[in-house]
Specification:
- By secondary structure, this protein is mainly alpha-helical.
- The longest helix has 32 residues.
- The chain is elongated and about 60 Å long.
- 30% of the residues are buried.
- It is built from 6 helices and no strands.
- The model has no long low-confidence stretch (mean pLDDT 89).
């Protein structure tokens, strides 16, 4: 049973980083490429929702003491998700991807990414503590 818990906590650690990396990749994709086509943006953009859902399940089942840390991370995940959904809708209406995100949007993305990074690091720190507690002695 301890081995299973260790595996699940390790998976939660990986998933928390994957959520952050997914949003960082979206941001870099938009800023560092010359996306002109809606289909290109909508195809290349990968929302880390699946990873977040799995992370939520693992934390709730195997580390329910970390739900507060998870919720802090989820706030910024939801903010970024909402912003990208709005942007997707604007792009589908014909606005080029680079023009769909306003300067205000970009500032919000950067602030939410920084906050998501902080929340992710806090969750990972607690996961490491739990992992150490479950290691065989």
């Amino acid at each position: 049973m301890k081995r299973l818990i260790l595996e699940r906590l390790e998976k939660a650690y990986e998933l928390s980083q994957s959520v952050y990396d997914g949003y960082e990749l979206q941001n870099q994709l938009l800023l560092n490429t010359q996306l002109r086509d809606a289909n290109e943006w909508l195809t290349l953009r990968k929302h880390p929702g699946k990873e977040m859902n799995e992370l939520k399940m693992l934390i709730r089942v195997y580390a329910d003491g970390l739900i507060e840390k998870l919720d802090a991370m989820d706030v910024h995940h939801q903010d970024l998700k909402t912003l990208h959904k709005r942007m997707d809708n604007v792009v589908r209406e014909g606005t080029p991807p680079l023009s769909a995100r306003t300067q205000t949007d970009q500032q919000r993305v950067e602030a939410d990414l920084a906050a998501l990074g902080d929340a992710t690091n806090a969750l990972k720190t607690e996961l490491v503590t739990l992992l150490r507690e479950h290691l065989p002695r």
